[in-house]
Amino acid sequence: MTTHNQPLIHLDGVKKVFLTDEVETHALAGIYLEIRHGEYVSIAGPSGCGKSTLLSILGLLDSPTEGGYLLNGQQVENLSFAERARIRNREIGFIFQSFNLIGDLNVFENVELPLTYRNDLASAERKKRTTEALERVGMGHRSRHLPNQLSGGQQQRVAVARALAGSPSILLADEPTGNLDSKNGDAVMELLADLHRGGATICMVTHDDRFARYAERTIHLFDGRVVDDRLPAAQTPVEAMSF
Amino acid sequence: MQALWQDLRYAVRMLAKSPGYTLVAVLVFGLGIGANTAIFSVVNAVLLRPLPYPQSDQLVLVRERSSTFHNGSVSYPNYLDWRAAQHGFTDLALVRRESFNFSSDTGGEAQPERLNGARVTANHLALLGLAPQLGRDFRDEDDVPGAAKVVLLSDGLWRRRFGASPSVIGQRVLVDGQAREVIGIAPERVRFPRLAEVFVPLADLRAQENVLSRDNHPGFSSFGRLKPGVTLAQARAELDNIAAELERRYPETNTSRRVNARLLLEASVGDYRQSLYLLLGAVGCVLLIACANTANLQLTRALARGKEFAVRTALGASRWRLARQLFTESILLALLGGGGGLLLALWSLDAILALSPQGVSRFQETRLDPRALGFTAAVALGTGVLSGLWPAWRISNTAALSHALRENGARGSSDGVHRQRASAALVVTQVALAVVLLAAGGLTLKSFWRAQEAPLGFNPRGVLMMSLSLPKARYGTDEKVAAFYAQALDRIRALPGVVAAAICDNAPFDDNESDSYFHLTDAPPAIPGQQPSAEVSLVSPDYFQVLGMPILRGRNFGPQDRLGAPRNIIIDESFAQRYFAGKDPLGQHIDDNQTMDKTAPPVTVVGIVPRTRNEAPGEDNIEKLQFPQMYFCAAQEVSRGNMLLLRAADGTDPLSLTEAVKCEIQALDPEQPVAAVATMEHNIAASLATRRLTMTLLGIFAALALTLASVGLYGVMALSVTQRTRELGIRLALGAARGDVFRLVLRQGMTLVVCGLALGLLGALGAGRALATLLYGVGALDPAALSFSAGALALVAALACALPARRATHVDPMVALRDE
Ligand SMILES: Nc1ncnc2c1ncn2[C@@H]1O[C@H](COP(=O)(O)OP(=O)(O)OP(=O)(O)O)[C@@H](O)[C@H]1O
Ligand SMILES: [Mg+2]
What we know:
By secondary structure, chain A is an alpha/beta fold.
């Protein structure tokens, strides 16, 4: 790991313009942002303000139209497809709103999947990490199940395990509770909070103020710009509980 | 009825709405059905159609069978005895294919023509169940030695040479230099003996010494008509009994001689049965592939319309109703395909017939007749049902329906597992069938190549050949015949561009064969029925030079080998090895087997030449018997009919010499026609016609199968990639490199291919066994042919998978973030 006194993520005037049918959409209109190691950041804002776009750029699924992006001190905005795939695999853990488990693979194989894309991991090491990740989210006993045999909450926990398995630098979550009822949503948020307490860096998009409060820091986007970036005024429930 | 009409109208609307899909489906159906129509119409014309004679299934061809030949020609005395003793046939006739010099005018500007004809007993037409369309038939009085000379003409000849004029009856024509009265015109449909245009009774032949000899088999065939209620087996058994009795009476000549009696149809076209059924099997496979292909297309489309069907169910449509709707569409597509297939068949038939063995009229008579049309309709209907079966069953499955409703908009990535399994099974089937066809194609290709490469023992390049026959009427003595040929050869040899010229009565690839028993003078007499046979050719000295054959030992024929001088022969290597092993063959004596004179002095071996191959290899012909060869000098043993062979100078097209040669012949004798002008290479190629037909068509069908199967594979893989877009996007988002995704899709496709390959190779083993008897010089399990077919398929299949796999690598990982 690189030294911790430099920010994990540094965005410098990132813009994203989509061109469809001659119409330019300025999804991101110049984002300046830093995220440090161990931070738990939530991104909030109205629909269409650019949250997912921002997350996709942070996760190297997409590259900015303009602006710089330093990840762990490395310039990443102009990397090739293959290099970006490599970084996604090693540095980024994704958690999606719709879980995105692969239906033909069982729980264990789903979690193991990102590790299989690394060429430097022995099979035994892969199995060990996969098992650990599953234990970590409390799904170790379900490793032979297929995704459609699990509840939504369980599926999302498996998805979290998959994101964790590769020991990424940051977990990126886009509305991780969007497809869950509140009880299951709470459980997943607890899990993320737990991971954060264990040192994980998390960046989460959410609509829900209730869940946003789990984060230490909330960034408000509006029309592709950061309009507010602050720590929550009230203490988070996590801290409250820890008393 | 009303409902059916409604279904039909709706089907038309649905198909019109997606013209791309309709076009592809109709094209696939059309290719499959068209190939089947074309081949079936050939099979029908050649094998199935009855012979054009009344109760033609009563007609039986009878030949002789011995320890050497299973299908040998009939000795005239044997025929007479069979005919007298038998009761199973209404009568037996005797026929022999011949060719005649024919001219329509007995004097003046005669235009002689060499024509195919036949010697026939007087009952020939009557036994076929026919009578002349004009004039009268032969009577028994016409068919005795010394009878007035008469002739029957074929319909074709009558039209061509006489403008179908009725006044031809009673006219005199020249047949082999002999004036004959035309007494009748045979009906148009007579095709037996093959290609005959001139029919002449046996008459004088019946008194000829060599014909009357029981151990002579001068090319006759016998045929008869079974009496009602008598089976072929019964008639055959009776004739065999008679033959056994003849063996007791004439052990010298008839030991182990029995009969070979087959239905006339079988005897005429039985040789082609296996090849044609093989081709029919091949197009059947192509059709199955087409079915599997369109079934997949329809399945895909039906499931894409899942919502529509769900709504219809909700509105109360029964399962049967839905299935019927799909069936209607499938059958409509197949019928459209059938229409296209018919056009394809019509268009390809000419090409197929051009490839077919020439001179077998049943091939050339192939038409899209009502039976072929009925077959097409049945096949189209059948394919429509077959390919609609699975989609209809799937969609009418109510469980699947509710699934489709729920599925709509669902993200469950396990959707369509059933569909994928069905598609996979269909693709595996297609690949397997394609492998079988490719293997069969590979085997026949290699077999053809082997047959073509089979050593000849002579150099066919630059050799021109033609046949001519001097009529007895004008060339009554051996001296006259010998003089004509000697002069002719001198003149031809002097032509510019001619290196050497010769005659031979039994040349390679001349569609003629002559063999004879022989006896080594010093050896003890052979056991009757076990005499060795040799092929016998009468050749002029330059023959070996024309064919580029070296004299391996001894000498060539020369001026000293003239009429009246002691007779010498040249033998081939195989003769020397088999009969003079450990001895010097030169100077050895063999009893003269070319004369009726039992006291003639033996002939002496003076030279040895290489063994030649005279016919197509690996077929049911004399070549199979591997007889050794002996050559007599044409000056000492004279034949009226000969092939004239000449070698053209390097750089001269042999065919370009034709007119000059004809001129020289005409200069010597203006009434002397030549026939069958062709290069040796052409004749060799023609001897492989059936093989070429089988190979070419199988090759085309294999290519078609490969194309259809690959398109099917491509379609399924492309669809699979589309359906897996989200999954692939997720994998990419999780850090899969493009190579990972490419390999994933490729592996998925190639798994199907490998399954199909394994199944197909199993099938190919079976097909190879069925093919085995048709193959020459290549085993049914030939590793090269099998690996070629597997390799070709793997290569094309890999390409068919690689294209969708490549597209898969371009999936945008962003799809993972979108929540549809
Ligand atoms: N691939 C694309 N092509 C064109 N426009 C796009 C594309 N992706 C996003 N946009 C546009 O960019 C803007 C931001 O979209 P984005 O998905 O980031 O919003 P969001 O904040 O995540 O909204 P939501 O809360 O509804 O998920 C929107 O106006 C959207 O229509
Ligand atoms: Mg969004």
